[in-house]
Design goal:
This protein has 520 residues and is α/β, with parallel strands linked by helices. 51% of the residues lie in helices and 17% in strands. Strand 2, helix 10 and strand 3 form a beta-alpha-beta unit.
Amino acid sequence: MQKESMSRIRQKTKKVKQSGGRVLFRLIFGRTMITVLLLLLQILCLIGIFRMVGLSENLLTISNLLGMAAIIYIINSEENPAFKLAWVLPICLVPVFGIGFYLFIILNPGNRGLQKLLNRRKDETKPYLRTEYRVVEKLKKESSGIRNLGHYIQNQNGFPTCDHTNVTFFATGEEKYADLLKELERAEQFIFLEYFIINQGEVWDHVLEILERKAKAGVEVRVMYDGMCALVSLPYRYPQQLRERGIKAKMFSPIKPLLSTHQNNRDHRKIAVIDGRVAYNGGINLADEYMNIKKRFGHWKDTAVKLEGEAVRSFTVMFLQMWYMTEAGEGDFEAPSTSGYVIPYNDDPINRLDIAESVYLDMLYKAKKYVHIMTPYLIIDNELITALTYAARRGVDVKLILPHIPDKKIIFAIARTYYPQLLEAGVKIYEYTPGFVHAKEFVSDDKKAVVGSINLDFRSLYEHFECATFIYKNPVILDIEKDYQETLKKCQKIDMQFCVDLPLWYRIGGHIFRLFGPLV
């Protein structure tokens, strides 16, 4: 018995060593490391060229003059002031490199073709996205503010205000996942899935088994995920593997070892549409950690919503616009008899309209009693700081829930630099002590709520493709607020003494990195 036990231990030890060796091999020779090394090589070459140019005194003078011209141009541009500051500093320190890098970013050649293509798809789908006249007339009587917000989203973003839409709120990834599996099993016509992260594991294996079975039964199945997955979670040619199983698949913007600004514009959306009958939206990706099957940063707190009714059409079209399809079916659905309004909307780095931030600002400025916010990241511009502090100073109960266990330590150090200014104005800040908050939601006055994929940071608000659901006077808002209050019970309230007690090096580092927050 003892010999058998020792033999099993040796076999397990050998397997662990082999597994560790494979992981180390993939880390050193995998696509991620090769991509990083090639990018570093290109950056070093650029720096070397700029340093050689800088050796000439005349060229140095010219570069300083160009730096001054660039700074004048940036100050007078229509960019967000935070972005202006982030660019002025490197141009002052290293004019040639700073100017070259700035021109490389603003020219953004990779996005021009994408912009034309997306605009064409939006024009093609306009006939399917019109706010009903009866809805406009109802809102004139109920709320001119929501009518105006709906008018803004319709005109700038293309998505209508809908009634006759039932909304279900999921307070955890586990709840959403269980419901999604049931609806996938019910699919008869089509399944559209678009996610920022799909990771192989228990969750995706179960979903994939259903998708493959449904595809064989004649259901049209389309899967689209962001190209970042090819670096860390899926094989590079995974779309081909899915197509071999009968599933139409696309990888959005594959990561390539080339310096290209459009590779910073990731598809951060989370959308599932089934038969044009139901749609899901929120912060939950298709990976084990989102359902707490795999623990990375303690308990993973996330949220999502499920729509049934007229607003499903908007998410169907939203998906197809990114898929670059030329046609979008209206979808068959039953219009539930429910109160309230729903406005699905998206935002992208191409239109430069800052729709996501505008919706958040609208809620903050119009709140009368409270605005309760849950977000994993807090890197905000002056407009959002002003809106948050102004709301608190005029007596609105403004609360923020953030993680206590961060997934990105530098980003979290930057977030905590905002605490003193917000606390001084009366904003209440809480950190979720069991783990990591990944939910992205606003809820206000028991009347308004937003649940989606949009974080309170520059990447979500300006750089990524995002989507969310704005909800007004729908019964589900009370469910969202109830979950918020339950989450508060598991949080640590932050005060000024907490900020003072943070290590000095931590505070200094956070403020230094905050200078480059818009570029992080």
